[in-house]
Specification:
This protein is of the alpha+beta class. The chain has a domain of about 90 residues: Alpha-Beta Plaits (2-Layer Sandwich). Helices cover about 30% and strands about 30% of the residues. It is built from 4 helices and 6 strands. A 4-stranded antiparallel beta sheet has the order 3-4-2-5. Strands 1-6 form a two-stranded antiparallel ribbon. A hairpin with a 6-residue loop joins strand 3 and strand 4. The protein starts with 10 loop residues before the first strand and ends with a helix.
Length: about 130
């Protein structure tokens, strides 16, 4: 990640040309969000085997206790394809259909620019 804001020690930024991103809406069966989150956490624990997956964010929907949102981005189209063919992703898409009340909703995006607090870069995230 390159520093896009000279002299600003609080933020780190990067331009993201060529990246491919997705917002994914996952609707768990009623009361089943915990099981879906368990599957997603197991998948996230294996992301090191997907070097072209640069970001993977799991978020809870504050208005619907059965919905989970994913935000992910890949180095490029080839990175997205490598993700789709990876063993961890194949196992995830085999496991989660029985946990879902509806097919996943997908929105393709092209990430452009990123800024993070430097404190986030220093924190230990699991």
């Amino acid at each position: 990640m390159t520093d896009e804001s000279a002299g600003d020690d609080q933020m780190r930024g990067a331009l993201l040309p060529g990246r491919v991103g997705l917002f994914v809406r996952l609707s768990a069966n009623p009361g089943g969000r915990t099981g879906l989150l368990d599957a997603l956490h197991r998948y996230a624990d294996r992301l090191a085997s997907e070097p072209n997956t640069e970001a993977f964010v799991i978020a809870l929907d504050p208005d619907d206790e059965d919905v989970v949102w994913l935000y992910e981005w890949f180095t490029d189209e080839a990175g997205l394809e490598a993700h789709r063919l990876s063993e961890p992703f194949t196992e995830l898409v085999t496991e989660i259909p029985e946990l879902l009340a509806a097919p996943p909703g997908l929105l393709r995006i092209d990430p452009l620019r990123l800024h993070l607090q430097t404190a986030m870069l220093d924190d230990t995230v699991v």
